[in-house]
Specification:
By secondary structure, the chain is mainly alpha-helical. Helix content is 70%, strand content 6%.
Length: 465
């Protein structure tokens, strides 16, 4: 499992509370608070197993919604909070806290169906328009209030006008948001029925969130704030459950097993040791419990015990790629790269060539600093980039691998790709130009170097406008 810190500017589809805060600061021209700055930062994690399990749950829903599954990105946010939201187009952000507390795969499927309903309904674009309308109303109120203050000297009246306008804007936006949530629910019902899934999981999850209504907003989970509940919404879900032929449908044992293993893995990585052992005690001999304990012991640097547990799991499920990956990670991060290598190789062989597993294998081969593994490392970096071409990290590592092999033109080309993806236009153009001087005429790599240079020129022109 890899963690990366990333900054995102939340769109207005992220949550209504944040949108309202943006309205208020736009009206009053206040500086960005430390809280707002913190809200703009999310810590993302990448994990091949978790992403694969969620993708299996989500793909039938995407197909039913007539979305291209590969066009919908699922991003995992490292946060204990219960939340999921759509942002920036077809991007679904899911907090790890929501996954862990979903309790059943049906609950997570229901949440994903709801978020897919937002994408299918084009709510992101419509919500942006609603926010802009609210901003206009708030701004007009501020102007009128200022005019009154200047003309009459009555600051109290001015404040009343400003706050009244803001209140109207907020109510209008919340009404719009509740309408969207109900619309996404209806879409979720259709998608769940189309994929033979029950809505009971979604009902149970929302019932848990509903209990937070009496809490102060400071203590509510973000999902409560981003997806305002109403009695009508809860009633609609219950009515659907009464009528749907799929209300008693069960997910397969395989999906349940995968889900429970995924939750155990996240819990093992993200929770303190004592919490892991409390939830998954030694008396629990199930696969998820042993998996969680292996990860907990690994995090405490008890390598031998962790490896021993993983060996037992591998013996029981010899075709599970993620058990080999986990054992490889334990060994690799404890300076035993040569022992980790066969485990990463086996994981990659069993994974239908997963991009993340290809990247991990390539990293180990590169870190060994043995010329015998360099070409394999290059091959696996390229395999990963063929699936996920926007990884600046993978491009940099590929550039290093080419450099160590003595192929400097290809090293320059890979590093120019890294610079381009980081929007470092000066270095991207410089490195692509250096690559162009030595790459064979007519080769695809030479064409790509020219593409990088042309892309830089276009970006520079766009920046001048």
């Amino acid at each position: 499992m890899a963690r990366t810190a990333a900054n995102f500017t939340p769109s207005f589809a992220r949550k209504s509370v944040l949108a309202i805060a943006v309205i208020m600061t736009a009206v009053l021209a206040l500086p960005t608070s430390a809280t707002a700055q913190k809200a703009n930062k999310m810590r993302l994690i990448r994990d091949a197993e978790t992403e694969n399990v969620i993708r299996q749950l989500a793909t039938p829903l995407f197909v039913a919604a007539r979305l291209e599954p590969s066009s919908v990105r699922i991003l995992l946010v490292d946060s204990d909070k219960l939340n999921a939201f759509v942002s920036g187009g077809q991007n679904i952000f899911i907090h790890t806290g929501l996954i862990i507390q979903s309790e059943t795969p049906g609950a997570l499927i229901g949440v994903i169906a709801h978020e897919t309903g937002h994408i299918q309904g084009g709510h992101l674009i419509r919500r942006r328009g609603a926010v802009e309308q609210a901003q206009v109303l708030g701004t007009i109120s501020a102007i009128l209030g200022t005019a009154v203050a200047v003309g009459s000297g009555r600051g109290d009246v001015a404040n009343a006008i400003i706050l009244g306008g803001q209140s109207t804007a907020t109510r209008g936006f919340l009404k719009f948001s509740r309408t969207q949530e109900s619309s996404a629910d209806q879409a979720a019902f259709r998608l769940l029925d189309a994929t033979n899934n029950s809505a009971k999981g979604l009902e149970n999850f929302l019932g848990k969130i509903k209990d937070q209504e009496l809490l102060s907003p400071r203590f509510q989970d973000p999902y409560m704030q981003t997806h305002p509940l109403s009695g009508a919404r809860i009633s609609a879900i219950r009515d659907h459950i009464k009528k749907s032929p799929n209300s008693d449908a069960k997910v397969s044992k395989q999906i349940t097993d995968d889900f429970e293993r995924m939750v155990a893995k996240l819990f093992g990585f993200l929770k303190p040791f004592n919490q892991v052992m409390g939830r998954y005690p030694e008396t629990d001999k199930s696969i998820p419990a042993r998996y969680a304990r292996a990860i907990a012991h690994y995090r405490k640097a008890d390598v031998e015990r962790s490896v021993a547990i993983m060996d037992g799991l591998i013996k029981e499920q010899p075709t599970n790629p993620y058990f080999y990956e986990m054992k490889g990670q334990i060994l690799f991060e404890n300076a035993r790269a040569i022992d980790a290598l066969p485990n990463y190789k086996r994981a990659y062989e069993l994974s239908s060539q997963d991009a993340l597993l290809a990247l991990e294998l390539a990293r180990v081969e590169l870190e060994l600093e043995d010329p015998a593994f360099l070409q394999d490392s290059i091959k696996h970096f390229r395999a990963s980039l063929a699936i996920e071409p926007n990884s600046s990290f993978a491009w940099r590592q590929l550039g290093i691998a080419y450099g160590r092999s003595g192929n400097m033109p290809m090293s320059y080309l890979a590093l120019s790709e890294e610079a381009l993806h980081k929007n470092n236009l000066v270095d991207a153009e410089r490195l692509a130009t250096k690559a162009l001087k030595s790459l064979p005429k007519g080769s695809l790599d030479r064409i790509r170097a020219r593409d990088v240079i042309e892309t830089v020129k276009v970006k520079k022109l766009q920046g001048k406008k």
